[in-house]
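STRUCTURE REQUEST FORM
Protein name: Cadherin-12
Source organism: Thryothorus ludovicianus
Requested output: structure tokens
Priority: standard
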Amino acid sequence: KLHSDLDKGVGSVKYTLSGDGAGTVFTIDETTGDIHAIRSLDREEKPFYTLRAQAVDVDTKKPLEPESEFIIKVQDINDNEPKFLDGPYVASVPEMSPVGAYVLQVKATDADDPTYGNSARVVYSILQGQPYFSIDPKTGVIRTALPNMDREVKEQYQVLIQAKDMGGQLGGLAGTTTVNITLTDVNDNPPRFPKSIFHLKVPETSHVGSAIGRIRAVDPDFGKNAEIEYNIVPGDGGNLFDITTDEYTQEGVIKLKKPLDFETKKAYTFKVEASNLHLDHRFHSVGPFKDTATVKINVLDMDEPPVFSKPMYTMEVYEDTPVGTIIGAVTAQDLDAGSSSVRYFMDWKNDVDSYFTIDATEGTIATNELLDRESTAQYNFSIIASKVSNPLLTSKVNVIINVLDVNEFPPEISVPYETSVCENAKPGQVIQIITAADKDLSPAGQRFSFKLSSEASNKPNFTVHDYRNNTAGIETRRNGYSRRQQELYFLPVVIEDSSYPVQSSTNTLTIRVCRCDSDGTIQSCNVEAIFLPVGLSTGALIAILLCIVILLVIVVLYVALRRQKKKDTLMTSKEDIRDNVIHYDDEGGGEEDTQAFDIGALRNPKVIEDNKMRRDIKPDTLRFTRHRRPAEDNTDIRDFINQRLQENDVDPSAPPYDSLATYAYEGNGSVAESLSSIDSLTTEADQDYDYLSDWGPRFKILADMFGEESYNPDKVT
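Status: completed
Returned output:
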């Protein structure tokens, strides 16, 4: 209720209301100022309202007092029940848990005002699920209420939880939710066989590794707690069988580890133990988590194929053995009670099998063709044995026949050797290691010996050192070798084997003399290389020679063409001599020289051959006023030139006088004297080149070339 001090109760004052909910939730009597609620209020929707009120003069419409603000608060009542916002709940707890084991905590929410009365005070209780579980009335924590709850007895539990406000007093509102609790498994049960003896029947023809039966132990646990491991207890027959666990069915699969034979043993008995893989130490006191059962296996008799006495046969025969020679035999038996006879035959796969035959009744193997170890050293084929009573039952065995060698081939040098020796080699130096090979056997099974042939053992050039390990070394016996004297040596080496009869062969090694440096590195091995620059390869030398030959051919062709052109200019007819021009290159004696050449010689070239006298004009000797001091040592030069001038003057074939003739004079006093071939000795054998070694290091190669002993073909070994 609103009231103004200026209101005298005569109706001159009017009250107005504005703010939250004015006109919709709240209304005011304009005359009395009474405020009324025109609809129901919900504290949970809006707990308070802020309003403004004012007193206004009815006549002037002017406010009599300032506007005032006030708050209307909604008082709470218990009109909301508790609610489980997260329900329904799902929880789990291990089986066999002790009393009071924590399961889950639930929580209910009440929308009422917790500060006013007990409208929002919630208390929890169990309506369904006792006596297995309990709940704390204040916190809502659910715990186990019974010990040793067994999952194998009951696995799922549904618990109904109630939350009530007003502290659980009479008249309070309540809400409920459901909690589904599952007992999880623990390994609290050992595996148990449903029976103590298992009987199995197994054919004796069962293959090794095949499954011959299954047994199963029952474990009421779940998951990994129910995983079982099976083992065969050592005892009678246990070594013939094996057992594994099928991971999907947890069954024990018995497999055959060795072949069965009804004729040898008809029954086997052994024990199998089943145990859990994952044990829980809390339940060790319950007892051993394993169980044992007996397995009896009866072997069934089956019609079996023949059995060979050996898993494989190995035989030996010499090569070139006569056809039809028996080299061995195979044996197979029928071990069944009927004991049928056996027939043998070869398993034909290729042409190699045709080298041998087998007796169908006795099983003896004989040669069918001549054998050659060098062609085929070993034969591998199969023999099949079948029962006469049941030819479809067969067995197979491999036969290996090794062909033994007969010594028929001599040993030879294994590879062609390119042997070289340095000119500066010392005695006892090894220049080559040689090995031998024999077609009869591999080198591992043969011993070879090496020696020089009788005709080469007396020559002092090389020797052979046998190392007695199927190798030998070629050693030098001289102090130095000369390529100019002898470039190649041929060394005959005799190689013998150790088989019977002894075979030997003579192999010739070619040894080339090479030029080497001081370290023994080969520089060149050809005689021609002495005169060629060091460092050029054979291909480069051939290319250079080819270019020189092409240039010479071009020069020869050019000269031939020039001569052909000169011949074409000569006239063969006297009547046409005036119509032709004769070209000649001789220069005359000048304009005053009218006697130098006869025109008749141009008409008939043969005339010049008859007239041998010079007809040109001898020029006068010119005198120069310039004087030079004569040289003291030019007498021999002046005499040489005068002699050559006089020879030219009387020579009819000499060029004209005004032609220039040049002569080279080498002088005298040289240490090496004249190198000209003039006045040299006529034969090489008459010359002595020992003096070249005195000229110093620059003439060393010439001294080596001309100072060596002449080549003697009879010394080649």
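Reviewer notes: The first helix runs from residue 538 to 569. The two ends are 153 Å apart (CA to CA).
Form closed.
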